[in-house]
Design goal:
Blueprint: H1 2-5, E1 7-8, E2 35-36, E3 39-40, E4 58-63, E5 69-75, H2 81-91, E6 98-100, H3 104-115, E7 123-125, H4 128-131, H5 143-147, H6 151-154, H7 160-176, H8 180-206
Parallel strand pairs: 6-7
Antiparallel strand pairs: 1-5, 2-3, 4-5
Helix pairs in contact: 2-3
Region (Disordered): 1-33
Protein name: CxC2-like cysteine cluster KDZ transposase-associated domain-containing protein
Length: 207
């Protein structure tokens, strides 16, 4: 139940997030440094810690390319790679073909190290806006490098997630002071209304 788990993805949980005993860093929070297994992965971009003492950490929201919410879960602190990995692995029957994320350079290594078979057909790409800050990362992680060769990617709005997250700023302050129960209900209602408005706009453009 969403009120107890703090998550809602519109579908039942398919599998649980495993524990990987052979990865010493697996149970550690990866919020502040870009490392995995004790070694750097060559990225100068850090996770932003936006939670303050006494306040809820916020939401990790999955967005489609039209800025419609696919699902969300509460996070106690700043968003990390495990939040994205766990959402995809636990609620998706098959991994998405593309995952566009502002930290995909680190997310790809995190996911493949744990569930290489599940993510074997997934391409982890950094959106165009955030790729400018990844000066030490390979262009193989950049969405812009794939667009020239893929007609499917040329029409994708890579800032859809940023647009959705910008909309969440409207509820950021009240949400931070709520209990998990109230925060989940409040977020669910807000995002349900958000999706309805987005779909109506999309329908009006297509007619």
């Amino acid at each position: 139940m969403p009120l107890q788990t703090g998550s809602y993805y519109g579908r039942p949980r398919i599998r649980n997030r495993p524990v990987y005993p052979h990865l010493p860093s697996d149970q550690k929070a990866d919020r502040a440094t870009v490392t995995d297994g004790g070694g750097t992965i060559g990225c100068s971009k850090y996770y932003q810690l936006y939670g303050r003492k006494g306040l809820t950490g916020g939401l990790m929201v999955a967005w489609c390319t039209h800025s419609c919410c696919i699902g969300f879960h509460c996070i106690p602190r700043g968003e990390g790679r495990n939040d994205v990995f766990s959402a995809l692995f636990c609620y998706w029957e098959r991994a998405p073909e593309y995952v566009i994320y502002d930290f995909s350079c680190a997310l790809a290594a995190y996911c493949m190290l744990r569930e290489a078979h599940f993510f074997r057909h997934t391409r982890f790409l950094i959106d165009i806006f955030h790729s400018k800050g990844h000066t030490r990362c390979s262009k193989a992680c950049f969405l812009s490098a794939y667009r020239a060769y893929s007609a499917r990617l040329q029409g994708i709005n890579s800032s859809a997630g940023e647009s959705g997250n910008a909309g969440l700023l409207k509820i950021r302050k009240p949400l931070s002071y709520m209990s998990q129960r109230h925060a989940v209900v409040f977020s669910y209602v807000f995002l349900a209304i958000w999706n309805r408005i987005r779909r109506r706009k999309l329908l009006s453009k297509s007619t």
